[in-house]
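hey so u asked for the seq, here:
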Amino acid sequence: MKKINSFIIIGGDSRQLYMADYLSSMGYEVTLYGLPEVNRKCAENIKNSISSADCIILPLPVTKDNKYIYSIVQMRETADEIFSMINENQLVFAGMLSKGFETKIKKKTDCIYDYFKLEEVTVMNTVPTVQGIIKAMIDNIEYTVHSSKCAVFGYGRVARLTADTLSSLGADVTIAARKSGDIATAKTKGCGGIYISEFWKQANKFDIIINTVPSLVINKKILEAVKSDCLIIDVASSPFGTDFACAYELGIKAIQCSSLPGKVAPKTAGKIIADGILNIIKEGEYE
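ran it, structure tokens below
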């Protein structure tokens, strides 16, 4: 059984800084690279630091430009150069890992895990995501959430918790979904329900629209029907669900809010990812 003692965290944002603090508090040796040097151990020689680490943690997402590892500090090395330094049997953890990058890393080690796919990470990230949605609403409206008319597109984890939270704040909430079962479930919880395909007919009723569906659902037909002061918040993953160009042309305020946990609750988000990684280690042949 392999003993895990050390991590190197490469790139990322505030989540990775808090992750480093959390893992250090658990007794692990943690080195950072490509992050601000603020009272934390940072790699002086990246190749040596990678070589000496038991585990490598890459950010969420791993990259935004398919060339460099995503980081709030510009990397000198490309992602390919970093991958070339990985040793056989090292554990590599990454978020939203593309097939191309996964293939490249697997040429160096088979021990690679995408923590973004972990059930516990996606479930726990729902709470800070919804907190971010509420913050975006409050920052962009001049009226109370209470008594406002809100539509939530989709009925997955984020949509359900968003609907529950808005209802608890006194909003009038309607779920827009494709499945009759989702609409029926929403109605049993006191929400309205409407098929996405029919939403355009009632679009002018809503003050706020939140989308969680990662495909184009808030299209030109809907945007032409909404109120001129309607606020649209899209938290879906790429390719998102709102025609932002059309919204801009029509003067509709539409906000794309991705990676909300890292923006509004990085300390919590960092701990969630770290716990997910530690669970993988505990469930594997490691200690």
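The two ends are 7 Å apart (CA to CA). The longest helix spans residues 119-140.
lmk if thats what u needed
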